[in-house]
Design brief:
Blueprint lengths: L7 H6 L2 H12 L13 E3 L8 E3 L23 H6 L1 H10 L4 H11 L6 H11 L34 E2 L10 E4 L17 E3 L4 H23 L7 H5 L9 H13 L3 H14 L6 H11 L2 H7 L3 H16 L7 H14 L4 H14 L1 H4 L5 H16 L7 H17 L6 H16 L7 H16 L9 H20 L3 H13 L3 H21 L2 H8 L3 H5 L2 H8 L6
Antiparallel strand pairs: 1-2, 3-4, 4-5
Length: 556
Amino acid sequence: MVHRSGSVDDALCGNDAVRAVLYTFAGKGWQMTGKGAPGSWMVAEGEAARQLIPISKVAVVDTAPKSHHGGVLVPRTSEHWELHKQAIEDLYLRQNKRLQDVMDIMAEEYQFRATSRMYKRQFAKWKWTKYNIQSSSGAPPTGQAFRGAFDKSCKRLRASKRSPSPRSDGADMKFIAPNTSAINRRPGTDSPSLTRYSPEPDDLTSLRCGLMLTVREYLKASHNGSQAVPTKAKEFTIGCDSWHLVGLLDLALDKLRGEQCDVGGRLLRHIFRDIGKSLNGICLQTSFGLCLQMPDYILRHGRLDILMIYLTYLTDLCRLRLPNHPLTLIVGMLKDLGNAFPACLPLCLGTLSQVWVDDLGVLRGPIDIHVLSARYQVQVAKENSDSGGADVTAASHLISDFGLLLREATDAADPTVLFLEDQILHLQWRFDAYEEDFVPRSRNAITNLLHKHDALPFARWPQQDLLVYQRCHLRLMEFLYRTGRLDEAHVVATRAIEATDDSMRLRWSGYLEQLLRWMDRHADADEVGRRWGELPLLGELEREDRDELSGIPALS
């Protein structure tokens, strides 16, 4: 029986053998043309099931996948791959050819076209992985050398040792696993290096998609109030060959250390720009420690473009809001970067301002003392920099938020209250818009400290409380002097010095020396010298310290 137009699909769908033969002949150049075209052919059942019978006027429906180029086969199902599995295995595993060479040979000799991403996805399904370097005998790797891409060992993050890349461009990334007992190797020979695919664009796209799924699950758990990292995030692995972000960051750091800045910079661009926004919770804290070391190598070579990518990555790290997110550590590190490399200070401050000042709603939520502390440090850094300048609007928001937390705290002896009061005092001292409320707040903070320790000698105070007390006194003293209240400033300064133990006096003397120089430029020298010469600290300094201070015009 011959199936004519419209019935060939039914015959093919019910006969796997016919479908296989059909695809095989189509791959070798047989063309299935339209209705009535010369050279068209039909399919017969029964004894002729494996024959292709040419006819002239029978319409045949083309069910084999083809591209625009005649008989070229583009795989759509697993059956298409199974037809050419032996050829691919021979080229890729036994002859140890590169993937690009395998793709070219399959396209030219077998008319089998697929992208590198399709090949790698199929390799993962077949659980293929190989060594890029054959053994000394030249025999192809066999047995346990073909390890599964998604076995248990790939589902946990582990430290990796690095080996030099055999390729000149450094794009071939290879690691030596710490546990190589399962790998067959001859005594006295080096362990073979596990190969990892080069970071091609298709790979990065697939990694990005997988990471986004993990992040969405993590954020969903965060919104539901769950503090634990989801199970899928714990078991998540990157790529079919057990890539993980820590390994890539470690490799980039190694390239920068080895003065291969171009390779390291390219890796950083791939990591931070393409998948940096999609980190899962496990990689987050581990990779953060590695990233803290990178700016030194980046800035040493003046790669500010890479630094910008790095700062963007830190921004995304904070936006994920881990239970113990390192906000304060990041701010302090970036401030140190700005001080060490003045050319990068505007860049660092701009990034910090965007995260913790301009995008307040992103990280704010319920007011968090850690977030406010980080934004407070940003504000201080901007004020102290020549390019940043004072931002009164941001300071007003900070004072409002600190004040809200302060009103929620009822225990005057709570160290959080003292911390908040200290921040508010500093901000109010900086901006004239809040001067009227500054003196009462500062005196309340001092009163709370005295009430907390209840006439306990200053020498027995905790160091943190003593520093807060001294800062409150000094800021209040400077504020009173700026507003012309010299008598009150003298009383406040005397009390601050009385709260200073012997180990702190020289440090305070240096601070007072700077303060005296500042006062001498803005007031009558005789009046300043008379008032500040009465301070008990100046009478108790060592002789060399008094000689040094005697050179100050205000004391001469």
